[in-house]
């Protein structure tokens, strides 16, 4: 709001890097980014996440913990994101129980 003509840059690290690259790829024609940087992205992210969620520790600690942290961000900024991202489904994102479900909604 303060600087509406300013360029927007994004950097993703690790899993955030995968999400950023996937977002740019799926929204190549209509994202608002001037530039992006991908740092330490994991390859074959979806397969690794599915394998991780099949383990008790991966499902209970990692998947649910990461889902909660991302949803906390969405509770704070989801309405603002909805204004700028066409088709953004905030309610589905907040209802996700696992990180793979959240990933499916967000990217």
Automatic annotation (TrEMBL):
MF terms in GO: monoacylglycerol lipase activity; short-chain carboxylesterase activity
Domain of life: Eukaryota
InterPro entries registered for this protein in UniProt: AB_hydrolase_4_sf
Name this protein carries in UniProt: Uncharacterized protein
Species of origin: Hanusia phi
Lineage: Eukaryota, Cryptophyceae, Pyrenomonadales, Geminigeraceae, Hanusia
């Amino acid at each position: 709001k303060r600087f509406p003509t300013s360029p927007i840059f994004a950097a993703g690290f690790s899993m955030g890097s995968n999400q950023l690259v996937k977002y740019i790829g799926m929204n190549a024609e209509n994202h608002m980014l001037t530039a992006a940087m991908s740092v330490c992205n994991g390859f074959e992210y979806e397969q690794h996440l599915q394998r991780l969620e099949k383990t008790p520790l991966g499902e209970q600690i990692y998947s649910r913990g990461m889902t909660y942290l991302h949803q906390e961000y969405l509770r704070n900024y989801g309405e603002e994101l909805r204004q700028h991202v066409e088709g953004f489904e905030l309610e589905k994102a907040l209802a996700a129980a696992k990180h793979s479900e959240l990933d499916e909604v967000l990217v």
